[in-house]
Amino acid sequence: MSFTQTIYNTVFRRTSSYALAIVVGAVFFERFFDQLGDGLFDYMNKGMQSHMQATCSKQWKDLKQDLALRQSSDEDE
Amino acid sequence: MIAASRLGVSLPHVSATSQIVASQLRPAVISLSSASKDVIPERHEFWHTQQSLSASAPKSCFLRATSAVHGPSQVRYAHTDITVPDFTEYRRETTAAANRSAEAGSVDRRAFTYMLVGGGAVAGAYSAKSLVTDFVSTMAASADVLAMAKIEIKLSDIPEGKNMTFKWRGKPLFVRHRTAEEIEEVAAVDVNSLRHPEHDSERVKVPEWLVLIGVCTHLGCVPIANAGEFGGYFCPCHGSHYDASGRIRKGPAPLNLEVPEYEFTSDDLMIVG
């Protein structure tokens, strides 16, 4: 019995199991899709990462890190 | 030929001609027209029925005749000169061979179809869910409104035994620093004797600090602190008496004073909201 046959018999054959598979699939798909979208957004809004130490962040979570770094380096001096 | 098939009653004749006709149309027409001069149909005393008509109607490989008492009579020819269209363009590879049974790979094909439909259903469910969530969340308060809706209270500003009133979400907020006697007194009250039975421990997080929304549960007046027969609050509008736990003890109000959500962030700071 091939893989397709197994899938067909266990999932697709009965409407109840098919519907259940769709609902469960939707839960995981939502997680995957949202993560993908967020990741893409963060990647596109990374800001300038120049080689001259000075970074130009766009999002607050990046900016917060930058500020913390800047503060700690100020304290060192 | 159409006329022949409609005869019905003269069936022997019709079936005789149709047998000649069976494979080819052209000779049948000729033979019928030439023969019809001499044949006189015998009249049987026989009543035809639906079944008898259709049973005796000529049937062969290429000819199908149907006849009915009240219904229409028709003769159909299965033409042999029409080629079957070629559908190979539209067939899946597994079913392309016309001379082999397509049953062998049917599970694979169905699984593929179900897969596509199921994938669409998953995407549809996701879209529907996010659509509903988006529309419902427009009714929720935004983050800045929620931030404005909180109030920080410095506890060291309120001396023991005093009640302070703040404005919070457009309503008066009572914060009362209770004395040890007050705490003892309200804790000792029999819960079953109350109109709205709540123990003092259900209404406070820390016994010293009582937080209440200063709106009388009767008709919404603002009660006066440290007044009334029970040493808590007294509503001047219709004379409701609340005790030092904000519970209704006497008067027309049906419920205890409402306790809002609050938390102690440090020893000296409380956030309501």
TrEMBL record, chain A:
GO terms for cellular component: mitochondrial inner membrane; respiratory chain complex III. GO terms for biological process: mitochondrial electron transport, ubiquinol to cytochrome c. The keyword Electron transport applies. Coiled coil: none annotated. It comes from the Eukaryota. The keyword Transport applies. It is a single-pass membrane protein. It is found in: Mitochondrion inner membrane. Its main location: mitochondrion. Keywords: Electron transport, Membrane, Mitochondrion, Mitochondrion inner membrane, Respiratory chain, Transmembrane, Transmembrane helix, Transport. Component of the ubiquinol-cytochrome c oxidoreductase (cytochrome b-c1 complex, complex III, CIII), a multisubunit enzyme composed of 3 respiratory subunits cytochrome b, cytochrome c1 and Rieske protein, 2 core protein subunits, and additional low-molecular weight protein subunits. Belongs to the UQCR10/QCR9 family. Component of the ubiquinol-cytochrome c oxidoreductase, a multisubunit transmembrane complex that is part of the mitochondrial electron transport chain which drives oxidative phosphorylation. The complex plays an important role in the uptake of multiple carbon sources present in different host niches. This is Complex III subunit 9. It comes from Holothuria leucospilota (Black long sea cucumber).
UniProtKB/TrEMBL annotation, chain B:
Residues 203-271 form the Rieske domain. It comes from the Eukaryota. Binds 1 [2Fe-2S] cluster per subunit. Keywords: 2Fe-2S, Disulfide bond, Electron transport, Iron, Iron-sulfur, Membrane, Metal-binding, Mitochondrion, Respiratory chain, Transmembrane, Transmembrane helix, Transport. GO terms for molecular function: 2 iron, 2 sulfur cluster binding; metal ion binding; quinol-cytochrome-c reductase activity. GO terms for cellular component: mitochondrial inner membrane. Its main location: membrane. The keyword Transmembrane helix applies. Its cofactor is [2Fe-2S] cluster. Its EC number is 7.1.1.8. Belongs to the Rieske iron-sulfur protein family. The Rieske protein is a high potential 2Fe-2S protein. This is Cytochrome b-c1 complex subunit Rieske, mitochondrial. It comes from Holothuria leucospilota (Black long sea cucumber).
